[in-house]
Every structure is written in structure tokens, then in C-alpha cells.
Amino acid sequence: MAKMTKEEVIEVAHLARLAITDEEAEHFADQLEAITNAMELLNELDTDNVEPTTHVLQMVNVLREDKSIPGLDRELVLKNVKEHEGGQVKVPTILE
Amino acid sequence: MSLVEKTAAQLQEMIHTKETTIAEMTQKAFDRIEALEPKVDAFLALNKERATQQAEEMDRVPFAERGPLFGLPIGVKDNIVTEGLETTASSRILEGFNPIYNATVVEKLKEAGMVTVGKLNMDEFAMGSSNENSYYKKTKNPWNLETVPGGSSGGSAAAVAAGEVPFTLGSDTGGSIRQPAAFCGVVGMKPTYGRVSRFGLIAYASSLDQIGPITRTVKDNALLLNAISGHDDKDSTSANVEVPDFAAALTGDITGLRIGVPKEYFGEGVGEAAKQAALDALKVLEERGAICEEISLPHSKYALATYYLLASSEASSNLSRFDGIRYGYRTEKAGNLLEFYMNTRSEGFGDEVKRRIMLGTYALSSGYYDAYYKKAQKVRTLIKKDFDDAFEKYDVIIGPTTPTPAFKIGEIIDDPLTMYANDILTIPVNLAGVPAISIPCGFADGLPLGLQIIGKYFDEETVYRVADVFEQATDFHKKTPQTWEGAAQ
Asked: Given the DSSP bridges, would you call strands A84-85 and B210-215 parallel, antiparallel or unpaired?
């Protein structure tokens, strides 16, 4: 597979919402390249006629009756919120 | 009077004969934790006040209303949420997080009357094989304080090995119960996927994660699995199957049992000491009537790559919820929302977590999805089929748990691929979803080695039966590490 470049790492980090410095990107590029190279091993296998496994057990959607049930208490939900006001979560500016 | 080294049955006997009380036992557990923590560093938050109060109330419950685990102390891995008791998954991003509900397993421990004494250190978000990835502390192996306890449930295994608590819960995504159990010389079970509810387990890789018990003996392990198993409406992947009495499966009889011995588990990358200890263990089982035959699990060598692609992909999705908005760590440096997310996450996550998030994001990104993620899902089918085929002829599959005994702290932390190779013998089991246990089976240079017994789907009973026969025939589980000397009993 393709060599993992520093630029690719910066792009992937941005997609994953991780801020990284140039120096970190270089370090991660080396490590991730070694890791993705090791993953190349799978290409030895012909899997054209193999179905993918998403889950090991036979599973079906679990449905319940469509009726309202009480959710969590607002005070409890806000217990771990660092900044809140009037029962609402405070965040930095969204629109410039 | 010493409470360590005692089984659940012996502790109950001591309570019934008034040799001790639940309150005294709880106090002694905290005394021992206090005495040993400076060396072992297994615990994060302690639950002393509530546990002490709970223990006193429990002493007043009539004997007739008590089960086999009633009043006994337990430690819980820190990725399992506990109401009112700080839960961090050993990550800075959850520093100070105080859950508002209990995981289903914690509710079940309460129903069984167990006393939660504290939370146990781990690799951050269960990513790691040495406990060196914890943001808070590095847990040491009680057998040699310069070596790692394994991971990611390293705190859970070390606490049992040090005799701080007789019971702990861990979680296992690619070996995270069995590898530390092997390194610390204790018994660790990864149940069948779906056997135990994952509700309240902070998700790493949802199609692989499973909670399980760590104990000193096989019987105690079976008792604890009895307590935590069962279908749960709150976990749509929990299996709606009957839960047998696992402790009742310990009949001591393995006559005619068919054991498959995979040649791949004794091949390249597996150390001589681990191979020899497993071969010696197989002889013990043969002497007790089992039949061993060499088998092949031909896709074993592809398991590591398959696992890291799938687990990292699932992790990149699961860990996207940590954004600093509703709970946990929040950056101080942010002009707008995007900077807020990015700074919170890079300051809150450690390097290994970042590596896996990036690997997963890469594997799932357009252009690479088929080549990496889907390819790995297909190879997972082949690995699962290896087990399905083997279990048509054999009752259990046995080999070493890990390629080597515990390694030195700091030795391989900067080399992710070498670290990942620790799990080559445990990962295939998670990909297939079958149950497996690690039990003590020998020593190398004073460090424990583990024997892995793998069973059919939902056949933990046979796994426990074989493990118990081996334990009864050997003394490995009775050995205690040097940290015990001079510690409060």
C-alpha cells in the first residue's frame, strides 16, 4: 500500500479532530507506515468470494414498543458539564 | 488471621463461623491496598467510605439470604462505569468524570452482594499490553516490580496477584484479560462475545470487547462469571441464551476430552519457555484422560493485522464522542469550536490512542475502505472459520497464552509493532468471539506463564472444567509473589 506521508498524517489527524505539530506528524508517519506495511500481509489472501464478518453472532435488530419512557434527569445530565447556564451546555463561538 | 490466599468458599466459612465479619474483611482489604499500593500502583479511585458503610449494613443480612459472593471485596477496571465513583479509563480526557449510572455488571455485583473497593488502572481506553499507556500511573507486576503486569487489564490482574483483592473485573478486546492474567500468574476469563452485557463498558472496539472475571482460582472465577452473565435489554449485542451454573461444571472429569493443539501456537514468535510450559501442561491433561492431537488454525498469522485494522476502525468511531462538551477534560485554549475539539482531544488523549484513532480513520477513509477495513472483515471470516472447523472435532483448543513472560517496564513502549506482537495468541479468539481462559502453568526466570484454554461458543463450562482439572493437579496457583512478604495480611 501507499507510503504514509507526513501530509497524509496531517490530513487524517484533521479528519479525526486531533491537533498535531509537524514534529509529531513526522513521528506518527514513521510509526503508521510501519504498521500499515505490516497490514499488507492480508493481501496474500484471496478473499474475492469471502463474505465480510461484521459480527460473530447471528444478530437481528432489537426493537421495542414505541412508547415514551422518561430520560435522565437534567440536573444529573449536567453534573459532569464544565460550563452550563440555564440548564444548557456552554460551548465556544460556533459562528464567527 | 489472614484473609489473603483464601477462596470465596473459605471466606464465607470464616464469616459463618464468626471468625471474621464483612466489615472487618473490607477494612483488611483497604489496609492491604494501602500497604501495597506504593509498590504495585494497581488502583485509581478508592471507594472506602461507601464500601465501609455498605459492609456494615451487609453484616446484618441473615445468612439464608446470602449467595456465595456476598460481602466479598472486588475491584473494577476503570473502563466500567460506577455511579458516583470516578471513572477515567485511565485517560486524561475523562479526568474527574463522575458517572451518573452503573454499568450492568456493576448492578449485578451489587445484586450478588459484592463490595466494590475501587477502580483499577489500565492502558488508556484499553489500548495497550503493558499498562504503560495509563495517563495516571504505571502498575507494576507483583512478581517483579521492574516488569509490566501486562495489559490492558494490568491493574485488575496485579491487584489479584498482590492479594489486594480476591476478585476483579477486566475487559478483553484482543487479550486484555488473558495476557495480564498470564503475566501475573492468576486466572482470567474472556467469556463468549455476548455472554456479559457491555452496557456501561466504555467502548473501544464494540464487536470485540467483552467483560470478564480475574481471580486466584478457577472455581472463584466461575462463581464470578455466574454473577455477571446474562442477557441485558440495554445491550442489543448481549446474547439471549441460558446461563448455566459454571461452578457446577467443575466435575473433575475430562476422560475422553478431545484437545486440539494448534501448531501455529507453538511456532515462530513464541518463546521456548512458553511452549515448554504448555506442552508439559498438555501431558498433565493427557494423564487425566484427555486426548491431544495436533491441529492447524491456518489463518492465525493474519489475525494481528486483521485485529489492528478492525479494532482501530471501531475505536476511531467510538472515541469520537470525547469532545470535551458534556463531560471530561476541556481545553483552555480555543477561539472557536473546531479548535476546541482539536485541542481538547490532542491534550486529552495519549500517543497510543492517537495512533489507533488515526489508523482507524485512515482505514475507514474513502479510497482505503475496501483495501483495509473490508479486507480485514473478510479475513475475520476466515479466522472464525478456522475455529468453527476445529471445534467440529475437538472440545477445546489449548496453547500458551503469551509468547513470553512479562517484559521490563520501558523495554518496548516505543516500538508499537513489537508491543502488538504480545497478543498474537489471544487476538484470534476475540476475532472469532469464542471464550478462552488463561490459568497459571509455569514459571520462567521467576515470572509466571499462562496456559490458554479456548472453548466453543457459549461453552465456558468445558473451559472451566479443563482449567479446574489442571489446577487441582498442579501447584502453580498456590505460589505467591515476593511483594507479599511483610505486607499486611
From this structure: unpaired
